[in-house]
Design brief:
The chain is of the alpha+beta class. The protein has 3 domains: 84 residues, 2-Layer Sandwich (Uridine Diphospho-n-acetylenolpyruvylglucosamine Reductase, domain 2); 111 residues, Uridine Diphospho-n-acetylenolpyruvylglucosamine Reductase, domain 3, CATH 3.30.465; 207 residues, Vanillyl-alcohol Oxidase, Chain A, domain 3. Strands 10, 11, 12, 13, 14, 15, 16, 17 and 18 form a 9-stranded antiparallel beta sheet that branches. Helix 1 runs antiparallel to helix 3. It is globular. Flavin-adenine dinucleotide binds next to strand 3, helix 5 and strand 9.
């Protein structure tokens, strides 16, 4: 059941039990509390609980369950999908502690900690987490969705490195979940997304990396660099993890002068092998086409947010992602043409080279889907107010271009709501059924609404 009115008994109960702010649509801070990076399809909850501790989360989830209301969670709001209409939104931005245990090479990461904080804390001990391209993304939501990071081909998915999680389920229990305790939930939470309860924290393994060779090379988008990138990835060792982002940059101050107004291809790469070999590994790309800008260097992992240097201001966007068994360069060239300067709205084509350790099962299996994918391609469209048919058509056309090699979707890189059959495409059929059984066991009334929800098996 959903509601658009504020049940006053619920608000009263929450205000008594929660130490963080409890906000309703009539409050001044309601918009600030419910808004994250994604501006399209924001949640419209009846109540927002700004959690500051596990007990706040427990109070919010229990109160929602008592009132048969749906509950959703938001960390930094990069990945908002299905919007909550009524019900309780738990925001976790205030629950952002990170504790590193250097002896165990682990970190306890609270639900709202952004990767940047985990990277910073781990770097003090010469360690690094399996973080992604944007330091502002929440470590917990990213990891629940699998997590393809900057060193992914060397170390695998972020979800592969989770040791345990703390989770509040709709029965009001605070559960410590690991390989021994609630093993089915442990399997599901690592890659199956946020459908099973509200995670308050997780323990993740860290890797002994303090410096990498990394950064970006920028080129004019065109067949030379598209083909060279494809060839480069085909022979890449596991120590090389890279992606390519193709877009038309606006001709405005703030964009580096060398790139302003151009249709560019940004190749972002991280080399985790011996640092002195890094420049040689990247050399074939430099020879493929004139380099417009070059930020490749040896750098502390603490500065890894500069590798992709993605914009982190709130805006609206939708995407279509495809996990591919192989990449057809002609289809990439066609998609890049379709998203060129003549397009009346902003669009970004993003590619990630997968394989390597991503393809190997971790010691304790998890729900991550389509490990055998060789590439991820996403086409993203930006929109200020609402998605439009021409944007949707561009994304659908992209999907058709790559249909021959599609294995499925990526949960994490899917921006905007997915239909149930689309969520299903993120997993092998047996795994999707297993996720639905786990969901039915912990949340039979389907109160926890994830961005990309797993329905309880009827
Ligand atoms: C600029 C940018 C760069 C990105 N780079 C990468 C990348 O390199 N690799 C990668 O794998 N992904 C990447 N992503 C995708 C990103 O990992 C997901 O969108 C992720 O869900 C966003 O994290 P967030 O903190 O913004 O989550 P939010 O948008 O706040 O939450 C997303 C969903 O996660 C669930 N959730 C959040 N918190 C909890 C919780 N405590 N308990 C249970 N469920 C919860 C909810 O269902 C929620 O709707 C990127 C996204 C953007 C926009």
């Amino acid at each position: 059941m959903t509601t658009t009115s504020t049940p006053s008994a619920l608000v009263r109960a929450l205000s008594d039990r929660v130490s963080g702010p409890v906000t309703t649509p009539s409050s001044d801070h309601y918009d600030t509390e419910r808004t994250g990076l994604q501006l399209l399809g924001r949640h419209r909850p009846a109540v927002v609980v700004g959690a500051t501790r596990t007990e706040d989360v427990r109070a919010a989830v229990s109160a929602a369950a008592d009132h048969h209301l749906p509950v959703a969670v938001q960390a930094s709001g990069h990945g908002t999908g299905l919007a909550l209409d009524g019900g309780v939104l738990v925001t976790t931005g205030r629950l952002s502690g990170v504790r590193v245990n250097p002896a165990r090479r682990t970190a306890w990461v609270e639900a709202g900690a952004p990767w940047g904080e985990v990277v910073r804390a781990a770097a003090e001990h010469g360690l690094a987490p399996l973080s992604g391209s944007a330091p502002g993304v929440g470590a917990v939501p990213y990891t629940l969705g699998g997590g393809v990071g900057l060193m992914a081909r060397r170390y695998g998915f972020a979800a592969d490195h989770v040791r345990s999680l703390e989770l509040v389920t709709v029965d009001g229990r605070v559960r410590r979940v690991d390989a021994e305790h609630d093993p089915e939930l442990f399997w599901a939470l690592r890659g199956g997304g946020g459908s099973f309860g509200v995670v308050t924290g997780m323990e993740v393994g860290l890797v002994p990396v303090s410096r990498v060779h990394g950064g970006s090379l920028f080129f004019d988008a065109g067949p030379d660099i598209l083909d060279a990138w494809h060839e480069w990835t085909r022979n890449a060792p596991e120590d090389l993890t890279c992606g390519m982002t193709v877009l038309v940059l606006p001709d405005v101050p703030g964009v580096p002068e060398a790139l302003r107004g151009r249709h560019i291809a940004q190749v972002a790469a991280v080399w985790t092998g011996p640092l002195d070999q890094g420049p040689n590994v990247v050399a074939p790309l430099r020879e493929a086409a004139p380099v417009l800008m070059d930020t490749m260097r040896d750098l502390p992992y603490a500065e890894s947010g500069s590798i992709y240097a993605e914009p982190d201001h709130p805006h609206g966007y939708r995407s279509r992602t495809m996990l591919l068994s192989d990449l057809d360069p002609a289809s990439v060239a066609e998609l890049v043409d379709r998203t060129g300067p003549f397009l009346p709205f902003m669009s970004v084509v993003g590619l990630r080279h997968l394989g390597g350790a991503l393809a190997r099962e971790p010691e304790t299996a998890n729900a991550v889907g389509h490990r055998d994918a060789a590439y991820l391609i996403a086409v993203l469209t930006a929109a200020e107010d609402s998605d439009t048919p021409d944007r949707a058509a561009l994304r659908a056309g992209a999907a058709a271009l790559f249909a021959d090699h599609v294995l499925g979707r990526s949960l994490n890189f899917s921006f905007g709501p997915l239909a149930p059959e689309e969520v299903r495409e993120a997993f092998a059929p047996d795994d999707f059924a297993r996720l639905a059984r786990v969901k039915a066991a912990v949340d039979p009334g389907d109160l926890v609404r994830a961005n990309h929800p797993i329905p309880p098996l009827a």
